[in-house]
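User: Please fill in residues for this 306-position structure.
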């Protein structure tokens, strides 16, 4: 009997959860049909890559992209569709096939829109505050830029830290959750200057740099928080309005590729990631520096007691 040959339509029916498991990639947590992973497309600590098993679709919040198994496979393996199908055909018997949905396919973006915001209030929730302080971001600083968002997801009520974007949507963060209240967009904070703009991937890195009080930016600087690298191209015209563009993107493959491409746009672009080159991102830089400070304080305190 000749071996099974999987075509594109059949590949799209392969269970994404099964495929990821075949690559030794396992979910960090799950809720109902939603399985959350640390992204297989980049390095991250907080899981922001979601697979909805009912729809058999994935969505990576960090890069703002999603799709079916083929879309994922060619990104993970950096290959063509044909090459990926050949990979699947070598172990076709290993996968279970997802039953087609009775209705028309739903995009991963549409899945995110099912989340409904109820209210945006001042940040007071103790659980959310502990999450921020655990990342060494003060509550006073966070309150200047963030809200406490009450939202409904799957018929249940939850709370998250919300950071507003230019289209009126919110980036949502908590210790166990990362999502968006649609519409998703970048956030531009205008401090009435054309001198410089600092560009961040996410708002926790923006807050982390403010918390560190590192003098690596001019005193008067505008801030552009992309909320996803997928908005970089859309935000380039705003960047170009400034005399200098400082890039403070993550030190992962996606961030480095984006910075490299940006440096080719204009000499006004400057990559500042060398300041935290031994860390994944600015928040990791902040946390490690604060931990070192605390260790030094404890040592001095111990010596005084001796």
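Assistant: Residues filled in for all 306 positions:
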């Amino acid at each position: 009997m000749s071996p099974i040959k999987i075509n594109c339509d059949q590949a799209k029916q392969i269970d994404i959860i099964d495929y990821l498991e075949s690559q030794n990639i396992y979910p960090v947590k799950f809720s109902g049909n939603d399985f959350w992973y640390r992204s297989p497309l980049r390095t991250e600590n907080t899981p922001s890559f979601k697979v909805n098993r009912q729809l058999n679709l994935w969505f990576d919040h960090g890069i703002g992209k999603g799709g079916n198994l083929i879309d994922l496979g060619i990104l993970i393996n950096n290959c063509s569709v044909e090459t990926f199908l050949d990979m699947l055909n070598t172990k076709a018997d290993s996968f279970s096939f997802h039953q087609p949905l009775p209705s028309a396919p739903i995009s991963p973006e549409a899945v995110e829109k099912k989340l409904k915001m109820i209210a945006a209030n001042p940040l007071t929730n103790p659980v959310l505050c502990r999450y921020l302080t655990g990342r060494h971001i003060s509550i006073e600083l966070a309150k200047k830029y963030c809200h406490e968002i009450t939202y409904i997801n799957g018929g249940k009520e939850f709370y998250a830290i919300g950071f507003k974007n230019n289209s009126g949507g919110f980036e949502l963060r908590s210790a166990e959750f990362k999502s968006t209240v649609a519409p998703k967009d970048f956030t531009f904070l205008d401090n009435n200057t054309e001198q410089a703009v600092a560009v961040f991937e996410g708002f926790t890195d923006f807050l982390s740099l403010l918390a560190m009080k590192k003098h690596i930016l001019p005193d008067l600087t505008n801030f552009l928080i992309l909320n996803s690298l997928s908005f970089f191209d859309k935000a380039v015209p705003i960047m170009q309005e400034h005399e200098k563009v400082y890039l403070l993107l993550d030190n992962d493959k996606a961030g480095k590729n984006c910075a490299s491409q940006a440096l080719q746009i204009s000499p006004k672009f400057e990559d500042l990631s060398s300041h935290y080159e031994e860390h994944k991102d600015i928040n990791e830089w902040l946390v490690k520096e604060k931990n070192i400070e605390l260790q030094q304080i404890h040592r001095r305190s111990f010596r005084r007691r001796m």
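For context: The chain has three domains: 8-110, 115-181, 187-285.
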